[in-house]
Structure formats: C-alpha cells, structure tokens
Amino acid sequence: xxxxxxxxxxxxxxxxxxxxxxxxxxxxxxxxxxxxxxxxxxxxxxxxxxxxxxxxxxxxxxxxxxxxxxxxxxxxxxxxxxxxxxxxxxxxxxxxxxxxxxxxxxxxxxxxxxxxxxxxxxxxxxxxxxxxxxxxxxxxxxxxxxxxxxxxxxxxxxxxxxxxxxxxxxxxxxxxxxxxxxxxxxxxxxxxxxxxxxxxxxxxxxxxxxxxxxxxxxxxxxxxxxxxxxxxxxxxxxxxxxxxxxxxxxxxxxxxxxxxxxxxxxxxx
Amino acid sequence: xxxxxxxxxxxxxxxxxxxxxxxxxxxxxxxxxxxxxxxxxxxxxxxxxxxxxxxxxxxxxxxxxxxxxxxxxxxxxxxxxxxxxxxxxxxxxxxxxxxxxxxxxxxxxxxxxxxxxxxxxxxxxxxxxxxxxxxxxxxxxxxxxxxxxxxxxxxxxxxxxxxxxxxxxxxxxxxxxxxxxxxxxxxxxxxxxxxxxxxxxxxxxxxxxxxxxxxxxxxxxxxxxxxxxxxxxxxxxxxxxxxxxxx
Lengths: 269, 247
Known about the structure:
A: alpha+beta, 12 strands, rRNA processing (chain A), cytoplasm (chain A), Exosome_comp_Rrp42_subfam (chain A)
C-alpha cells in the first residue's frame, strides 16, 4: 500500500502485469454505482449518484421566464457543476476550478446534442412564458471520474422533475399555476457516459479512480443512448490512440450503457 | 404568514410537535473518503454535510495566518441553490455565507484544542443540501461530529439548538415557517458536559424577563441533542472496531 503512494507508476505497472488494478477490478470494469432520486424535497427534481466513492448530487429547480428571441417556443435547461474544496484536497477554495467548468460545458453540449428533454415541452406560451430548468450539480466526494457520475445524476434528476401545471388566462394574460397537479416531462434516450483513460501509452482503463487519474494521461468519454447510438464522444489531450483501441472503448461503452439504463428504469417509477 | 397558528390551543406546533420536542434527527459519521473527517446530519428537513480537512500544512494564500503556537481554522459555509423553496443563486463570499462561516469558526476556535496543532490549518467545509430552519445549529452539530470523525482534539462536543417564543411558551428547534414569523429567534451552542455556552445569537425582540426561560429550554434541547449525537458516535466506533478485529 505504501509503495502505491511512494512509487505510484512503478507499482501500478506490477498490477497491470497481472491484468488487474489495485482495487481488484479488471481493466475495463467500472465501479459499483448507486442511484437515489427524490431525496431533496425543496428541489423540483433531485438525484444522488455514488460511483465507487465519487458522490455527486444534482438538484433541479424550475422557474418561469420569458423565452429568448431566437427560440420563442423553447424552454431552457441550464446545467452547472460545482467541485469545491469540500470534495477533495485537490481543489482549493475560490472560483470554480477548470475541471468543474469543463464538466459544465460537457453537460451543456450533451443536453443540446441529445434532447433528453424536448425543450418545446418546456414552453407554456410561445413568445411569453417558458420554463427554465436550473440543474445544479455538486460533487460531494471526488474519487475520480466525476464526469460519468454527473451525467447519471443530471439525467436521473431530469427524469425525476415534477412541475406544476401552468395555464395562461386568455383575458388577463396572467399565468395561473395549479400547485396540485404536478407532471413529469417525457425524457428520451437515457444517455449514459463511460470514461476511459490511458496509462503509459499502452493500457486503456475504464472508470479511473482519483489515484489512477493522477498517473494517467488523456481521457476519452463516450456517451451512448438506449438504441446503442453514439451521442457524444470527447477525446481530451494526452497521447494518440489507434483506431482499434477506440473501437474497444466504444464497444465497452455500449455494454456499460445498457447496464446503467437498468438503474434509470428502476428509479423511473 | 397570516392566519397560521404557530402554537395551537392544545399545545401543538404546525408540524405536530410539542414545544419542547426536537425534530427527527438522523446522523452519520464517515460519509466521505477524501476528507479526513466527515458527517451528515438531518434535523427534520434540514440536511447538512460537513467535511474536515486537517490538520494540514497551511495553504499558499493563507500563509499570513500561520501561528507558531496554534493552528488556525478556515471555515466555509455554502448553501446549495436548490436548498430553499425559492432558488437563490449564492455567489461565493456573499455576506450571509461569510457571516455564517465566521460564527461557526468562532464557535470552534473556542472548542478545538488549537495549541496541539501549531503551524497548521484545519478546514471546515459545510454544505447545506436542504434548508428548513436552524441552519446554523445543524451546521454546528454536523461539524462537531465530523471533527470527532477526524480525530481532532476538542474540549467537548458542541451541540447547538434554536428556540423561539410563541404565545409566551418557548419552542425549540424551529423550522423555516416558525423562523419566518415575527417571533424572536435564539440560537445557542453549548459544551454539554462542561455546561458552558460557546455561542449565542438572538434575532428579534424578546423581553428581558422572558429570556431565562428561553435559555433554559434551548439548553435542555442541546442536551437532548447531545444524547443522540453521542449515541451515533459510539455506534460508529463499535462498527469500526468490529471491522478491525475481523480483518
């Protein structure tokens, strides 16, 4: 155990010779995932994800607003990820770290490319009133791979959202909210992300822990949907990767996706 | 909130509690692996997480606060945007957050045996996931448990409770509705075994004659809370001890 801290790269190589990782997982194996929805009653929808020891909570609040001029019939979904000094000693107190901002942008791009929620569903009255869903994610404990955990938390929270019905009075033009009736939005696709990272230019490992992230370079994240389509692929920095390795990652991501979708279905009711 | 009876004629509050009854308390130690000590507490619907890092070497930008004979505390209080009924985006370093952080820091400066950790820093991070009244008290209780989990030397537990005065009767552990009403709100943090008050804050108006009764009620509330917290710590230790003996 001490060797792992003193000489992380060397001792990791000895593990890889046996095709196993320090926590006993195989190279392409992901950690156990736990999903819990609806625990925050002040939020309109919430989800808590525990991916191994990485814990991310997502709370969704819905507000009414005037739509933008470019898309008068569409609502808005605004994700925001926060990784503060609370989740790991890697982060210092202060403005959002680069990692948090990268994840926020990733989630934003994912929502735009995937249409988990059809933003036209969020429209109450075209040109006048639409819903805006503020999705705030907080990383509570960071043990690597906050990205996969955030995607899972965000989608599960959106699935969990229940909003009161709003009708607009024809005469006065004022909105009338019926707090008794709450409906959920139709969510589609159930996207699921899998992140891989490259060790020493040769080995690809899935779902890295924090210690593994520190000694590896380059990430690839693949997001698949329920029909095994590729929705989003992101390759960040590091070393070059041959096409055959990419294909391996995609194949594993598709398998992992179908495993995760069982979680979505289990909490969907 | 016009027309809402904070205390009914039969002596029940809005949520069905008696005036001297605490809300349901659930707490857990050791919830995070990255932090040196962590705890989660639920007081009714108020949910707070605490994470402690330290004692560790002082941060680069806090070098000017290093003391040669004791450690210095750094406390950060954050409230999630979805923690209240109305979404409120709280920027880092806003006044309310700073205010809370300072109060919590002062409370623990009086409790932690800082002279045992010279030239180091202890960080207390608090995250409120759901706010339903008595935020300060829940934060103190969570931080206290987290410090015990981190093994940092303290004089005693710190237990905090809030109280208000309705229709002449002190009511303890107030929730958001009771807080938003016109009544005075007293928050007190005590060291239960040493029977000392480390922090007290009164908001609103209260007659001087009524103060002793309210203080008595709130101190009793803190001591009841101490019983729950102590039980949680002992259960947690027993669990950890069994994993050591079995492995």
